[in-house]
Specification:
The complex is a heterodimer of chains A (178) and B (105). Chain A has 178 residues and is mainly alpha-helical. Chain A has helices at residues 6-21, 26-32, 37-48, 67-86, 91-108, 117-129, 170-177, and strands at 132-136, 143-147. In chain A, strand 1 and strand 2 (143-147) form a beta hairpin. Chain A is globular, with a radius of gyration of 18 Å. The termini of chain A are far apart. By secondary structure, chain B is an all-alpha fold. Chain B is globular. The chains are: A mainly alpha (178), B mainly alpha (105). The A-B interface holds A 71-72, 74-75, 78-79, 81-83, 85-89, 94, 97, 100-101, 105, 109-111, 140-144, 159, 162, 167 and B 29-31, 33-34, 38-40, 43, 73, 84-87, 89-91, 93-95, 97-98, 101.
């Protein structure tokens, strides 16, 4: 159909493979590679052994505001900003590198992987399009993900001011019970 | 500890630090820059050092790596042992990742 270089295609397949292994949904792959949908589906099946999940991607920006997701997404966006600002990589490569560093943090402190790669990708797009933005906490001066339409002049992050029910999920209760 | 022994130890640490940094940059440049907290200029300098230069550089009476987080809050978070370790450590990681990279003039 199209005549394009085999090397470019190999690179694209490599990128798609990496993204699938990190848990990307099909839509993320379609946006970031030139490979056709059929080939991506095939690749997905080959790597994961199951068909890619159908349906829309999670699209709520409010998800990033609840306590635990906000902690994880703020950590990720800080890593991502560091990587894009200082290391000379950007776009999807920066996203993959930052996500790997985020996963590493999760593993070191044995946390639950709250932020999926697809969510991380959505987060970056939300920040780029101005739906969400990064605001400093007046208490610890760290940068945190916030709604663009909220007032940020006196923002106190969820980690300086931990809500009483923070992290008390059903899952955590179940884990304690066992 | 006598002065000579102290100087030996400093040289050892300098050498280990430089070797580790070089190794990290060689293996995965982007992650290494994040972990070391350095920018591209410093990464380039470290990359270009030959083994002879490395040894010369390490033989100093001063440490080449220094305390990275000049922030009392981060130091407190990293050293305290509160009930919820993982949350404190994540908070510290957010603050540390948000710090500007070490740069050279």
């Amino acid at each position: 159909m199209r005549n394009r270089s085999i090397i470019t295609e190999a690179k694209q397949i490599h990128l798609a493979t990496e993204l699938i292994e990190l848990g990307a949904r099909l839509q993320v792959l379609e946006m970031n590679t030139d490979l056709s949908r059929e080939r991506l589906v095939k690749l997905y099946k080959e790597i994961r052994g199951v068909s890619p999940p159908k349906g829309m991607l999670p699209y709520s920006e409010d998800w990033f505001m609840s306590w635990q997701p906000n902690m994880h997404s703020s950590l990720f966006i800080n890593i991502y900003n560091y990587v894009t600002k200082n290391t000379g990589v950007d776009g999807i490569d920066a996203l993959i590198k930052s996500y790997r560093l985020y996963v590493e943090h999760i593993q070191v402190y044995q946390l639950e992987k709250v932020l999926s790669l697809t969510r991380a990708w959505t987060l970056v797009r939300f920040v780029e399009s101005g739906v969400l933005c990064i605001a400093p906490c007046v208490n610890c001066h760290g940068s945190f993900v916030v709604h663009s339409l909220e007032i940020h002049s006196n923002h106190v992050c969820g980690l300086c001011n931990i809500p009483s029910r923070a992290g008390k999920t059903k899952k955590a209760a179940l884990a304690n019970f066992h | 500890m006598g002065t000579n022994q102290l100087l030996d130890e400093i040289r050892d640490i300098n050498l280990s630090y430089l070797l580790l940094a070089k190794q990290m940059l060689h293996d995965d440049r982007v992650s290494a820059m994040y972990r070391l907290g350095i920018n591209q200029d410093i990464a380039d300098i470290l990359d270009r050092l030959s083994s002879a230069q490395l040894i010369k550089m390490a033989a100093s009476n001063m440490l080449l790596c220094r305390f990275r987080f000049d922030d009392r809050l981060i130091a407190d978070m990293l050293s305290n042992d509160s009930r919820d370790q993982s949350v404190t450590k994540s908070h510290a990681a957010i603050l540390m990742a948000g710090k500007p990279a070490e740069a050279i003039a």
